[in-house]
Amino acid sequence: MDCLFCKIVSGEIPSTKVYEDETVFAFKDIEPQAPVHILIIPKKHITSAADITAENSSVVAHIFEVAAKIAKQEKLDDGFRIVTNCGDSAGQSVKHLHFHLMGGREFTWPAG
Q1: pTM confidence score
Q2: What are the DSSP E strand ranges found in 13-76?
Q3: Could you give the residue numbers annotated as active site?
Q4: Cα(74)–Cα(81) distance, integer angstroms
Q5: Quick check: 83 pLDDT over 80?
């Protein structure tokens, strides 16, 4: 499989790692949209949120636990945003499930 994020997990492509355990890998986004912008991904390839099943959903719960740890580590006490895009029309540019953890600035809704 020619997946950018799988290559980052394997170390084939360098990244600025923020967190890693047996299930999850987190690294700084190379095009940050906020002062803190970290991508949190499962190490096992899941294509998108549309592919979450009863068999793999525990990894998503774990990702949110990790997001809370990283938010504390990054001192995002005033709040943070977690976003995932699913599919081309939603802006998913890498076909590997990933969550954007962003903070350190004010956000608006739905854009920005």
Answers
A1: 0.94
A2: 17-20, 24-28, 36-42
A3: 98
A4: 13
A5: yes
Report pLDDT digits (tens) over 17-73. 999 999 999 999 999 999 999 999 999 999 999 999 999 999 999 999 999 999 999
H or E segment and range at residue 5: helix 4-10
Strand arrangement of the beta sheet that strand 36-42 belongs to: 17-20, 24-28, 36-42, 99-103, 80-83
Structure tokens at 94: 């890498």
First to last CA, the chain: 33
From 105, 54, 112, select the one nearest 83 (Cα to Cα).
112
> In the structure encoding, which two tokens stand for residue 104, read together?
């350190």
Long-range contacts of 76-82 (CB under 8 A, 24+ apart): 76/36, 76/103, 76/104, 78/103, 79/103, 80/36, 81/34, 81/107
Q: Do residues 51 and 16 make contact, with C-beta atoms less than 8 angstroms apart?
A: no
